[in-house]
Amino acid sequence: MTKRSIGPRTLLYPHPDLIIGTYDASGRPDAMAAAWGGICSSRPPSVAVSVQKARQTYANLVEQREFTISIPSTDYVREADYFGIVSGRDEDKFAATNLTPVKSDLVNAPYVGEFPVVLECRLLQTVEIGVHTQFIGEILDVKVEESVLGEDGKPDIEKLRPFAYDSMRQEYYGFGKVLAKAFSAGKEFKK
């Protein structure tokens, strides 16, 4: 099959929609939408998010060295989008969206009370990458609303209803049905 070059782009499918929660120097809660992020280590469990130096969240991360990541459901796509289009320097994003900043039990950072999943993280290291700095945080705990847990006690993606970001089209997408069981579907090719 023929493929057409579209040049170097920030293209990856899907991009997660992660909401980074931090406090500023005066203790005011802030939240920023970030699509440049994901799990980066199993041991210790760690997540990486990339933030530009011009962002308020960058300054907060450098100063506080702790943060949360809240995962919104599709019910909150407008609020999550808002967190990515205004600066915490100019707006109180929690007040504007009527969402609740909840102080983490384990780190000095807020999370979004209405979002069903939160990761509480302590900064392990930073990596300078072009116009972004990658902040790598150890996940100290994951808190999940009871309502999105399955009978097995694990988060159920159909109840959670997260969404993904398409950086090329600048659109958000939901998830569909289960396609196959991981670490099982490909076994037919094993020799």
TrEMBL record:
It comes from the Archaea. The keyword Flavoprotein applies. SUPFAM superfamilies: FMN-binding split barrel (SSF50475). Keywords: Flavoprotein. Residues 10-165 form the Flavin reductase like domain. Its cofactor is FMN. GO terms for molecular function: FMN binding. Pfam families: Flavin_Reduct. PANTHER family: FLAVOREDOXIN (PTHR43567:SF1), FLAVOREDOXIN-RELATED-RELATED (PTHR43567). Belongs to the flavoredoxin family. This is Flavin reductase family protein. It comes from Methanoculleus submarinus.
